[in-house]
Amino acid sequence: MATAFKFYRLKFTKNSSADLRYYCVADWSMFEAADATGLDVMRSGTMSSNGIYQSFVPANANDGNAATYWESDNRVVAGTPSLLTVELPAPVVVRSLRLVSTAQPLEYPRDFELQGSNDGSAWTTIVSFVDFMVTGGPTTKTSTIWTQVRGTSRLEGGVAASRVLIQNWATGALLASLTPATNGTWSWPAPSVDQVLVTHLGPSGYRPIADGPITPVEV
Are 152 and 211 in contact (CB under 8 A)? Predict the structure, then answer.
């Protein structure tokens, strides 16, 4: 279920050039609404990071000004992932995230984790993003958080399907391989793509008779 956290951080694992050195974020927004409307909770937060390049400080990432930005130091030299952290005045459940990249073509946040904490020490990974930003820029991208895709997958005779495969609709990349419950129900938490392809697999000679409703829901 969705959890309220006082601290949130972005743990970067790959930039757009895949050289793992520098990362840039022009603006980081988060909202309690899944459609990224209403109050941007980031505006009242205090920013920090585990490294900066020159004068491109963490506070630039939540000032609402896409012309300013935070830039990390060289994390290959540092030997640890780049971390950009916000401390909010009080714990909040956030259901959507928006990032604005800079014009730096090699430093977009491509792969990263959104993590939450209530003490700034013990961290929980909320969602992992892969290929969030790859090319182009400046770019703005929004994604939902604490969302599931759910469905029911049964075969002839009423038994559950053997597997449910979830793929990125646009690229065909496999996102998840799930085993449905005995009644055929399944769910996939926190999707980071807008559209998915769902495939139901059963033993040879059987065909799916139920595959829905497939519904995105908040948890």
Answer: yes
